[in-house]
Design a protein that fits this description.
The complex is a heterodimer of chains A (about 325) and B (about 90).
Chain A lengths: L1 E11 L4 E10 L24 E8 L4 E4 L1 E9 L3 E4 L2 E3 L11 E4 L5 E5 L2 E3 L6 E7 L2 E5 L2 E4 L2 E7 L5 E4 L2 E4 L10 E6 L5 E4 L2 E3 L1 E2 L17 E2 L2 E6 L9 E6 L2 E3 L3 E4 L9 E6 L2 E2 L2 E2 L2 E4 L4 E4 L2 E2 L3 E2 L1 E2 L5 E2 L11
Parallel strand pairs in A: 3-5, 4-6, 5-7, 5-8, 6-9, 7-10, 8-11, 9-12, 10-13, 11-14, 12-15, 13-16, 14-17, 15-18, 16-19, 17-22, 18-23, 19-24, 22-25, 23-26, 24-27, 25-29, 26-30, 27-31, 28-33
Antiparallel strand pairs in A: 1-2, 20-21, 32-34
Chain B lengths: L4 E7 L9 E10 L5 E9 L9 E3 L10 E4 L2 E4 L4 E10 L1
Classes of the chains: A mainly beta (about 325), B mainly beta (about 90).
Amino acid sequence: MYNVEYTFTGTDTAGETASVTVSVPVGEPEGFTDGHQITQQNVGKTSTPRTVVSSLNVTVDGSVYENLEIHGQTTIRADCEFHNCDFIGPKPAMNSNYTIRNIHAQSAVAKFYDCHVTSRAGNTKCVTGYGNGAMEFYRCVIRGGTDGLFIKPEPGFPYHFEDCFIGAVMRAGDDPHADALQIDGGTGGATFLRCNFAGLNYPGADDPTMYDLVLEGAENGNAAVIISQDSTNPMLVANVSFERCHFDGGNYILSIDPPDGFDPENILVKDCTFGLSCQYGPRDIGPGTTWINNTWLIGGPTRHQSQDIVVVAGQQVPGQGG
Amino acid sequence: MAAPVITVTRTPEGVVAPGTQVTFTVTAVDSDARSVTYSFTGTDSTGAAANVSHSIVVSDEVTIDATVDDPNGEATLSPDVSLTNVWHSTV
């Protein structure tokens, strides 16, 4: 806990002045303690009305955008903040049309607060970030096609996600490859605190902006979280942490031991929970992963089609070799 | 000749999470009907400057013939100027 002091001073034309100082206590958010508490309804855009605008290309440091409904692609090239914005990606489109694109942003830092980010094209990514620019998301909903979130930040430009819902959106006819989060080779640092990853295949309406996705009855996507490598150009993934997060859906829900290239290093999964929806099991992790106190959120039979298992809520999810 | 009277309210109230946008509504009343200019500073507990992300004026309202109470009963000041501004800051 710390305080921020703001002093407001008014001066009239005769030079008479008066001041008032307001103290604002700043502390950890109340309410959320674990990622499973994060839903598409309790984070994201607020009730404040938004103004519709077209695609953005952010090039001026210090830019602040508030209360906007942005249709099209947003490209990040400078330090900026977004508050209560609804990003709706272009449709239809392939990989050239991400909803938010933060690629080689030349040391820029983009911060997002209370935002919704949705891809309208099933075969593309929603938020894509790689290279030398950092991003931070707080209380946001990110729903993508191929990947909700695709990241490859260079070392020194870490990404941070806090109290966010990150999901894959799958619709009829979409590419079956869908991850809530894909971490690609070359990633040098990312932290996830109290996030909910849903690697689930949501059938439903053609336009994901027109309905709120539901978990019940959904089929699996590829993974809630996957670390992948380009087999022709493998690069190390290192320094990624997940704390108090929730994961569900996928072949492996947490698939972070890629068959190609380097073993990821310094990966932390701590105090996280898992759902029951998985094809092969809850996790596929390598020797570079530290696995601490990760449990099943609820009990019952898993959707574990190759070898069904029954788990108990609160029971430890075994780590490597378990 | 009197100094303007400054009042400040903020939303949200209470403890706020890091990164929260706080809205300050600042009202100045100058009984001498002079224009009032504002300044704004912010520092955290370490003395570092607070992250003032945005500031806008949403309204400048001039109120004439405002009524106030004084110890001797109701008095009328005419004119009385009231200006309202809103600041946004990210803590």
